[in-house]
């Protein structure tokens, strides 16, 4: 099934509450105690740094009203606005770590405490015991997403670490480690009443409710971006987003007391507190009103990633053991629903977590029909003898005013006769079930007795059985009924909610007592707008996301329709991988746009695993090419070279690294015929830069800021304008905390013998977490030389970029990296690496070239045959995009910082330029 993006609930930190931050860096201070650092807005190195801890990905606010709290209804309405507000958009855009993509949240019904109300609550003596008791009695149920906002009634004061509300602080937030809940952590804040002693001291408004909303915003933003601060004892995980200089605190502390207003979708105005924007280097509440010096940013989230966390699930009477595949953003769980005396169901919960603007699709197409299965591939599917829908007959059911009904039918008509079917014909046909093209019948329209909430077992099974009993539908051996629901219909399956835990699923019902056929196969497809948007697809178009989810369920229903009935790895299980699930699970969220050659319609289809191809594909390799793909290529080849040969139809192998120029003077800066060609390989749509410093690196802070400038500036805008494709938009990236290698250092390192093993060990150890859009530039300390393919740095080359296959140890196929030697030695040898007069400027020029190459052609180093569909943008004679222009120029970024960079070839202007 198609899973919704879910937090990494496997992340758990053990420990006890500490006073490490008892100076209240994580609290809201009194307004009069704030000292505003005017230089903060222009200081180059002010901002928040990510230290590796968890964030709250899809916050669920549960207000707790302690006593007769004022503004209870208004506060509930405010939280409903806040979790989907521009404040959340900023957080989603700037503070979604690759492992923890953040999305809009929701608000749960409030809890009211009216008995045994005390006039003073101490955090350690009263608040924590109160919350633990609520957990023990079942009054509240903490999860990794739940945030408990404890609001105090008038006359109730609170104390924390010796300080008192309205005297020493206005609110505070910390974390309670729970030994009585599976969630382990309980996130909460305490917000005193603002009508009494706090009035006038905890906000600049004369309206207590406005001050209350400002404080609530402050705490909400900090809970989402740094929930585990109470467990942190040093600048490392579980600390998440915190001041890079360790002085100003968290995202809201930077802007403490800076209130603003924002309007909801109904035009109602709310008071919010501004939060810090790393991108704009100032306090903002909305990108649209951030000022003329900013650009309005698209909200984006890191791409989904595949992973292989194994969590066994068994259920009543259908005790098939399956495993949960988690991704830093996606969780692919396959579960079995309980079997009733009259109906048997199977539901698979596989999370298709994707992101809104960061795509994770694959370029691959699958094997030729005569190809043999790839041997010993851990991702291969096994056939266990169960049914396959060899002649699938799709009968869509539209429940209420489901969106895009006509286009949905057309989509299924495309699928059943598409290269997607050719792939399953090739890979999943067995003697008993030779797969053929399918058919699509007229839809069934349900217009009466509609519900806004349905449970799979209690509502959907009886609903489908009734359709059979009344003759509305007549299931056959190969019928598949995908149910598409109208907006605002929530679905529960196994206690999990749609658009929270899953995006769709497929199941099986035993109808042998009312039909000539034993089983009925169905799919559940919630409306993909509303709450599903952002968690169930990488597009802003809900229909495209629906197609991705629908194709996922279609492929799984066809090849493994009886999964939920299997009690062992045997019939009725069809095609299945004991560790990774079904064919679509293995390629979860890898979607691609394809064009129907018969009518020109463009559809979004999720890739599925091909045993014969050994990769995630949407069509056999011998099928006609289909549009393009984004990052997350899947292939079985392994290499670390960056090719300089032209892609062709031969099997020629790459031979060298990025070559060193042979003259100190700039080469011609471009002419007609300089345009590179796009070969449909991956490009980095939203690059996440994680520098690796090997040894003692000079100017680390300047290097950090350089990468920030390259990834978030008009330089990046230029790359996006010139090298985005119809299917992949290159947007702004971000720079993350560097990783330093300080032990077992060598003065000479070889790419194959040292660099590659080092990177793999770092992945295995969890020191780095490569994803489909991650780029690791490795900077070598002065005096360290690197060799590659018999060539030597600063003698034969200046730098190189490469890719290695980490599919056996990582959650994505490739790790993209570059190696940048210290340019002191290069300048001593000659000036061929750069024309700059200083070492740092020479380094900057080399960095900019490798950056451009990595964004536009990251997987080139993984090519063993130029027919491999992993080549991105490439020039037949000049190589990568970064090699097309050699002229260096001074470039000023949006923060008035000046850098020496290489120009970039503009396809539209037919010349080398430095910015859009």
TrEMBL record:
It comes from the Eukaryota. Residues 290-356, 648-674 are annotated as: Disordered. Residues 293-304 have a biased composition (Basic and acidic residues). Residues 310-356, 648-669 have a biased composition (Low complexity). InterPro entries: Erythrocyte_Invasion_ImmMod (IPR052660). PANTHER family: ETS DOMAIN-CONTAINING PROTEIN-RELATED (PTHR16021:SF13), MANSC DOMAIN CONTAINING PROTEIN 1 (PTHR16021). This is Uncharacterized protein.
């Amino acid at each position: 099934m198609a899973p919704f993006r879910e937090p990494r609930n496997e992340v758990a930190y053990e420990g006890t509450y500490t006073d490490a931050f008892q100076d209240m860096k994580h609290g809201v201070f009194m307004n009069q105690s704030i000292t505003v650092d005017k230089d903060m807005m222009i200081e180059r190195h002010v901002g928040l740094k990510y230290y590796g801890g968890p964030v709250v990905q899809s916050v669920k606010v549960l207000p707790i009203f302690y006593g007769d709290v004022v503004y209870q209804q208004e506060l509930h309405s405010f939280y409903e606005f806040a979790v989907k507000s521009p404040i959340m958009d900023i957080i989603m855009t700037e503070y979604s770590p690759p492992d923890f993509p953040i999305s809009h949240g929701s608000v749960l019904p409030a809890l009211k405490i009216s008995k045994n109300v005390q006039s003073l609550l101490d955090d350690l003596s009263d608040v924590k015991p109160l919350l633990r008791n609520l957990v023990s009695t079942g009054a509240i149920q903490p999860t990794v997403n739940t945030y408990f906002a404890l609001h105090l009634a008038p006359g109730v004061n609170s104390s924390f670490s010796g300080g008192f509300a309205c005297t020493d602080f206005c609110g505070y937030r910390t974390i309670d480690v729970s030994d009585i809940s599976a969630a382990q952590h309980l996130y909460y804040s305490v917000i005193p009443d603002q009508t009494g002693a706090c009035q006038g001291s905890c906000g600049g408004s004369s309206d207590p409710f406005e001050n209350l909303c400002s404080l609530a915003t402050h705490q909400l933003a900090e809970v989402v971006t740094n929930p585990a601060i109470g467990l942190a004892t040093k600048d490392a995980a579980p600390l998440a987003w915190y001041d890079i200089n360790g002085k100003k605190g968290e995202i809201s502390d930077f802007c403490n007391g800076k209130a603003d207003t924002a309007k909801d979708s109904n035009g109602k105005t709310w008071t919010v507190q501004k939060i810090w924007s790393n991108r704009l280097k100032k306090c903002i509440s909305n990108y649209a009103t951030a000022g003329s010096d900013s650009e309005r940013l698209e909200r984006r989230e890191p791409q989904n990633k595949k992973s292989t966390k194994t969590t066994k699930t068994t259920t009543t009477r259908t005790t098939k053991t399956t495993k949960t595949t988690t991704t830093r953003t996606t969780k692919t769980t396959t579960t079995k629903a309980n079997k009733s005396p009259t109906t048997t169901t199977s539901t698979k919960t596989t999370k298709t977590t994707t992101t809104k603007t960061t795509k994770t699709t694959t370029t691959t197409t699958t094997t030729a029909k005569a190809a043999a299965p790839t041997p010993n591939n851990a991702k291969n599917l096994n056939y266990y003898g169960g049914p396959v829908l060899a002649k699938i007959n799709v009968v869509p059911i539209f429940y209420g005013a489901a969106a895009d009904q006509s286009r949905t039918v057309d989509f299924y008509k495309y699928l059943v006769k598409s290269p997607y079917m050719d792939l399953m014909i090739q890979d999943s046909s067995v003697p008993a079930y030779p797969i053929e093209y399918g058919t699509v019948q007229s839809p069934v329209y349900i217009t009466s007795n509609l519900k806004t909430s349905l449970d799979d077992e209690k509502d959907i099974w009886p609903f489908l059985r009734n359709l059979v009993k009344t003759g509305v539908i007549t299931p056959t051996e190969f019928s598949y009924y995908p149910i598409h629901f109208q907006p605002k219909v929530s679905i529960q399956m196994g206690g999990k909610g749609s658009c929270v835990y899953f995006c769709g699923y497929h199941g099986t019902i035993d109808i042998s007592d009312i039909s000539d056929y034993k089983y009925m196969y169905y799919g559940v497809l919630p409306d993909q707008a509303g709450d599903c948007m952002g968690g169930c697809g990488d597009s802003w178009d809900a229909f495209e996301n629906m197609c991705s989810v629908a194709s996922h369920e279609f492929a799984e229903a066809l090849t493994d329709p009886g999964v939920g009935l299997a009690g062992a790895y045997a019939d009725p299980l069809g095609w299945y991988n004991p560790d990774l699930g079904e064919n679509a699970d293995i390629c979860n969220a890898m979607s691609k746009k394809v064009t129907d050659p018969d009518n020109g319609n463009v559809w979004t289809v999720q890739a599925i695993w091909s045993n014969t191809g050994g990769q995630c594909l949407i069509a056999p390799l011998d099928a006609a090419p289909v549009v393009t793909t984004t990052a997350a290529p899947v292939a079985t080849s392994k290499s670390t070279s960056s090719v300089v040969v032209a892609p062709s139809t031969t099997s020629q192998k790459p031979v060298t690294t990025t070559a060193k120029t042979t003259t100190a003077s700039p080469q011609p800066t471009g002419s007609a015929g300089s345009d590179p060609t796009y070969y449909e390989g991956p490009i980095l749509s939203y690059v996440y830069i994680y520098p690796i410093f090997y040894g003692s690196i000079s100017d680390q802070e300047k290097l950090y800021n350089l990468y920030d400038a390259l990834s978030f500036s008009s330089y990046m805008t230029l790359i996006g304008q010139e090298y985005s494709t119809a299917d992949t938009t290159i947007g702004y990236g971000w720079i993350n905390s560097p990783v330093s290698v300080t032990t077992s250092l060598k003065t000479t390192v070889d790419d194959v013998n040292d660099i590659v093993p080092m990177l793999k060990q770092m992945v295995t150890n969890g020191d780095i977490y490569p994803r489909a859009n991650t780029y690791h530039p490795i900077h070598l300390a002065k005096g360290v030389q690197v060799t590659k393919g018999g060539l030597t740095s600063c003698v034969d080359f200046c730098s190189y970029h490469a890719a290695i296959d980490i599919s056996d140890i990582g959650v994505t196929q490739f790790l993209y990296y570059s190696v940048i030697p210290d340019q002191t030695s290069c300048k001593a040898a000659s000036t061929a690496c750069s024309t700059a007069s200083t070492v740092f400027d020479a380094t900057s020029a080399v960095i900019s070239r490798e950056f451009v190459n990595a964004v536009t052609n990251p997987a080139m180093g993984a090519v063993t045959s130029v027919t491999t569909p992993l080549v991105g943008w490439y020039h037949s004679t000049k190589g990568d995009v970064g090699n097309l222009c050699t002229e260096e120029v001074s470039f000023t970024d949006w923060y008035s910082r000046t850098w020496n960079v290489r120009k970039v070839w503009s396809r539209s202007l037919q010349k080398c330029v430095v910015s859009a």
